[in-house]
């Protein structure tokens, strides 16, 4: 796999890694518990932390590919130029919203630094950091989509980056 392909799919790779850890820990613990009548005491908490990471990194991956639910019925009725303006305004709002939630995530992680988890006794900031990572990824892509929208309105050119950002309807 080329380095460019790895970087382009980094969110998906990381999320898949955490899903694999979650599934492996749960399956291993079920087998140990029901077949050998013993279990790994920390597996549930580790699986939960891994699952949280997979969810928030996966949310960033979905955001990158515009897979979140959106209502664009009214937008599609407008002209291409008006669609571009609407998408630009929506992306600007999303930069603000995602940026603010990223800021709140930083506050949340700082507040959770001194709180240990129940079983492993590690800082709960390791789990809380998943929220920060996920929203930082979404903020990054919001900025990327906004810049692509500005380029379309200024130049009128639709390039590959703009198509990936789904700035105009097809």
From TrEMBL:
It is found in: Cell inner membrane. The keyword Transport applies. The keyword Transmembrane applies. Keywords: Cell inner membrane, Cell membrane, Membrane, Transmembrane, Transmembrane helix, Transport. Residues 23-150 form the Tripartite ATP-independent periplasmic transporters DctQ component domain. Coiled coil: none annotated. It comes from the Bacteria. It is a multi-pass membrane protein. The chain crosses the membrane at residues 12-34, 46-63, 84-106, 118-138. InterPro entries: DctQ (IPR055348), TRAP_DctQ (IPR007387). One of its GO terms (cellular component) is plasma membrane. Belongs to the TRAP transporter small permease family. This is Tripartite ATP-independent periplasmic transporter, DctQ component. It comes from Alkaliphilus metalliredigens (strain QYMF).
